[in-house]
Design a protein that fits this description.
Elements (H helix, E strand, L loop, with lengths): L14 E5 L4 H12 L3 E6 L2 H11 L5 E5 L5 H15 L4 E4 L14 H29 L2 E6 L12 H21 L4 E8 L21 H13 L8 E4 L9
Parallel strand pairs: 1-2, 1-4, 2-3, 4-5, 5-6, 6-7
Length: about 250
């Protein structure tokens, strides 16, 4: 959100940070933002995938990529600093980086628990904590947190993932209340089953009932284009026709 004009927002020449922007939902969001004329900085944890994503996205607009693990505060600071050096002060933050390990509590190791909470929840806090002073100084900004329907619907084997996504929803909505008077809009996008490598069967024709990453990207762009007077705090997205159980 770059101004107080109540009419529909234009995204052109805005600057966005997209964590986990090298594949799946994050890559689709980065692509859609570039097509809207946004300058986009992405991060991922592997140099090879970052470089590949930048090559793929490069023809669409101004894009920058770097390696950063957002569960590490120093790497978050470095990512934001590098993006500002390249493009200037961002007005959009998309927290997309995430991981899921699905086991019962007895079987879930402390390392696996720590990784999920660290990336899915603490990493979002780090990114928001570092970006909010920038948004306040520039007069506002948009934060889009990519959550999950697992943030409201528990399931067997989802203890750690559910905990991280339930926490993310609460964090997002409290942050919206904390910073709305700073001109900051906060939205939590909560997809159900998405056809990405996160679920292990991206591109599998047998999974064509799933939500496409481009569908999530379209929702993100729609949220960002909403009039400045309006914040959509939560969006739940489901496959239209999932397989029938039983």
């Amino acid at each position: 959100m770059s101004n107080n004009n109540p009419s529909k927002n234009t995204l052109r020449n805005n600057i966005a940070l997209v964590t986990g922007g090298t594949r799946g939902i994050g890559l689709a969001i980065a692509r859609s933002l570039l097509e809207e004329g946004v300058k986009v900085a992405i991060c991922g944890t592997k140099s090879g995938t970052v470089d590949k994503a930048v090559r793929e996205l490069g023809p669409l607009g101004e894009v920058f990529g770097t390696v950063a693990d957002v569960s590490q505060i120093d790497q978050v600071k470095s990512f934001i600093s590098a993006a500002r050096d390249r493009f200037g002060d961002p007005g959009i933050l998309v927290n997309n980086a995430g991981v899921g390990t699905f086991r019962s509590v007895a079987e879930l190791s402390p390392v696996e628990w720590g990784k999920m909470i660290g990336l899915n929840l603490t990493g979002v806090y780090y990114c928001c904590h570092e970006i909010l002073p920038i948004f306040k100084q520039r007069g506002g900004g948009d934060i889009i947190n990519i959550g999950s329907l697992a943030g409201k619907n528990p399931f067997a084997g989802g203890s750690g993932y559910n905990a991280s996504k339930f926490g993310l929803l609460g964090f997002s909505e409290a942050m919206m209340l904390d910073h709305r008077d700073d001109g900051v809009r906060v939205s939590c996008v909560m997809p159900g089953s998405v056809d990405t490598a996160f679920g292990g069967d991206a591109g599998n024709s047998a999974a064509n009932w799933k939500i496409a990453p481009d569908d999530i990207a379209e929702v993100v762009v729609t949220l960002l284009k909403m009039p400045s007077r309006t914040t959509v705090s939560r969006v739940e997205i489901r496959p239209t026709r999932p397989p029938k159980k039983g």
